[in-house]
From TrEMBL:
Gene3D superfamilies: FAD/NAD(P)-binding domain. GO terms for molecular function: monooxygenase activity. Residues 5-344 form the FAD-binding domain. Its cofactor is FAD. The keyword Oxidoreductase applies. This is FAD-dependent monooxygenase. Belongs to the UbiH/COQ6 family. Keywords: FAD, Flavoprotein, Monooxygenase, Oxidoreductase. Pathway: Cofactor biosynthesis; ubiquinone biosynthesis.
Length: 399
């Protein structure tokens, strides 16, 4: 006999779990399917991934009652310094110019996962189905029949709405036949932590090099999180080489602004590609997070964009008679299309412009960075959008 849910979320990572938390108190029955629950404690000798939360995302976590569980380990970003290697031109962004405590925060992923799943454990109406894997679905006029595998047995579930939150290689997207535009950047992001010679303070650095951007984010009083984008072959080499060689290469690429780098943490790398679904909805189904729009990590916009997607969706579902109604899904798509389009093109444009070695572009990039300093109106608009300030204001007003 099939289990019945109002909404079934395939993918219980940070995006899927955030949506389930946003639905708390809705009176809906929510199923959250995950193959392997995310770690909620640090894993020794493994790369510790972090997420950069925009100020607007903090507002959302506060609204859902999650921020107190996150705040103690959230490293504030109060200043942003953007530059390019070997060229003039610098752009600086300061939190005080926008009347906020911080531009954003750097939070370990295990802390986010812990806060989300602790909240879900206290919420009525949400069932976490794990470990389980999505197998197939069949859409009917009023419900979707979903088959999961739980070990060596199958489980049948029916639901009014399927939400695919299962990542860039989404099995839900494939099952629904939703088309995606995919661009392989031929790059990997090397992720680790490093101890700089000078205290990192509360400044984040984005330094563009011909190979790809280097992001250095405050993490603690003594170390920073590093996301170093490199061509695939070079990234794999950097992960294999000894600590001394890695630190020397990083020093050359980043410069001396933070003194001499030392104290390297475990390293890992993941491939970078852009996945965009022009129409991320189907009959009684939609895609959120990387399943619908997987972005380059430059400017750290992917998860923050996904939070805005699930917030709008949760708001529409609160009072909907039928969660899978075609008009409701179309309303969500239209409401989110401009933001998704703008952010995906912004991050893609940054990568293509600053990783291009064509003669003369270095000068143009330097002029562009300098121009942002001389045209504060444009810089402020970009910063406000990156922080999600307009969206956060709307959410606060509606709350």
């Amino acid at each position: 006999m099939a289990d019945d849910f109002d909404v079934l979320v395939i993918g219980g990572g940070l995006v899927g779990a955030s949506f389930a938390c946003a639905m708390a108190g809705s009176g809906r029955r929510i199923g959250l399917v995950e193959a392997a629950l995310p770690a909620t404690d640090p894993v020794p000798d493994q790369v510790e991934r972090t997420t950069a939360l925009a100020w607007g995302s903090r507002i959302l976590f506060e609204r859902w009652g999650l921020w107190p569980a996150i705040a103690g380990t959230a490293a504030p970003i109060r200043h942003l310094h953007v530059s390019q290697r070997g060229r003039f031109g610098v752009t600086r962004v300061d939190h005080a110019d926008y009347g906020v405590d911080a531009l954003g925060y750097v939070v370990p992923n295990h802390v986010l996962a812990g806060a989300l799943y602790q909240r879900l454990a206290d919420v009525d109406g949400v069932e976490v189905i794990a470990p389980a894997r999505f197998q197939q679905l069949e859409t009917g006029e009023h419900r979707v029949a979903v088959t999961l595998s739980e070990g060596d047995r199958s489980r049948q579930i029916t639901t009014c709405l399927v939400v695919g939150a299962d990542g860039a290689g989404s099995a839900v997207r494939a099952a629904l036949g939703i088309g995606a535009e995919i661009r392989d950047y031929g790059q990997q992001a090397v992720v680790t932590s490093v101890c700089p010679g000078r205290p990192p303070g509360d400044t984040a650095y984005e330094r563009f090099t011909p190979a790809g951007p280097i992001a250095i984010l405050p993490r603690s009083a003594t170390d920073v999180a590093l996301v170093w984008t490199l061509p695939t072959d070079e990234a794999e080499q950097r992960c294999r080489e000894d600590d001394g060689a890695f630190l020397a290469a990083l020093q050359t690429a980043f410069g001396q602004r933070l003194g001499r780098f030392d104290g390297l943490g475990p390293r890992g790398a993941y491939p970078l590609k852009r996945v965009i679904c022009p129409r991320p909805i189907a009959e009684r189904a939609l895609l959120v997070g990387s399943a619908g729009h997987h972005l380059h990590p430059a400017a750290a916009q992917g998860f923050n964009l996904a939070l805005r997607d699930v917030t709008v969706l949760a708001g529409l579902l609160q009072t909907a008679a039928d969660p899978g109604d075609a008009a409701l899904l179309e309303t969500w798509r239209e409401a989110r299309r401009a933001d998704q389009h703008r952010v995906s093109n912004f991050t893609d444009g940054i990568v293509r412009l600053f990783s291009n070695r064509l003669p003369g572009l270095g000068l143009a990039r330097g002029l562009g960075l300098t121009g942002l300093e001389l045209l504060p109106g444009i810089k402020h608009d970009m910063a406000r959008r990156s922080m999600g300030l307009a969206f956060a204001s709307d959410v606060t007003t509606d709350a």
